[in-house]
Structure formats: C-alpha cells, structure tokens
Amino acid sequence: MPREPFSILLVCTGNICRSPSAEGVMRAMAAARGLGEVLRMDSAGTSSWHVGEPPDPPAIRAAAARGYDLTPLRARQAVSADFQRFDLILAMDHGHYAKLERLRQTDAPAQLALYMAAVDRADLPEEVFDPYGMGPGAFGQCLDLIEAGAAAWLDRLVREARI
Q1: Which residue among 19, 52, 64, 152 has the highest number of C-beta atoms inside a 10 angstrom radius?
Q2: Is the pLDDT of residue 152 over 90?
Q3: Among residues 130, 127, 133, which one has the least CA distance to residue 58?
Q4: E strands present in the chain
Q5: Active site residue 102
Q6: Annotation marks residue 130 as catalytic
C-alpha cells in the first residue's frame, strides 16, 4: 500500500518572500531527486497582511533566475490546524518559531523546527533574513540560504528514512 506523502509547511511573516521561495526551491529539489511523489509542501505566513497575494515580484524574479517558478503560489496565514495537517513545520526565524509555538495545540503531532536547523555549516546563520524591500541582491543572498536549507532538510529526511 502506498505511503502518504511526508508533508512540510514553510513559514515566514507574510508568505510573500522567504516561505514561498523555500516552497518553490524545496519542491524543485525534491523533484530533481525523484522525491516529488513522496513529499507534499505548502507555505504560510504568521500574519494575514498578504493573504491571497502572489509572492513579492523581486522574489519571483530572483527565483526565476535560478529556475524556480513561484508564480502559482498565493499567500495564506498559518493556522493551528496546520499542526495536524503537516508532519514538519519549518520557521524561517526565531520570531516565527515563537508565534507558531503559541499557535500549536498541545496534542499536535507536527514537528516544529527552524528552517536552517538541518544545515551543518558554521558559516551560515541560524535564521533566513527577510529580504523584503532590500533590493534584488538581498533576494539572491536569501535564496542562497534557502537552497542550503532545502538541500540539508531533504538529505536529513532521506537519511532518517522519513521519505
């Protein structure tokens, strides 16, 4: 009997820069590794500011320059039910992590972690910074972190036989 796909929710503030970029990157990397059928991904924000909006145009352009398509994605707000619907919820920074902890129900099965937690490189930060309003160069630097995090999480999930 086929196994249910492992599900990951990626979370930032407004769901228009970091988390949709991480969703697009992780989805593409999973597909390239032949893992597209065993993973389900979504992204959300801790705020409702941009619900229904597409990713920020500079995020779309930066991702497209690296071969990632963010255009179908639309922002949504994270809700407590996400802790029942997803196996792993990844927060882009400590502030998101704290907000998600407050949203979590005590019986929620989802694992909550920082997005960069799987990256074993001392030269990279613990958090993915917010490039919103910082110009195109910042979006490229942010994507560098997102790519490192996506690759590290996929490696870890395969190593732990979770996918």
Answers
A1: 19
A2: yes
A3: 133
A4: 6-12, 39-45, 88-91, 111-114
A5: no
A6: yes
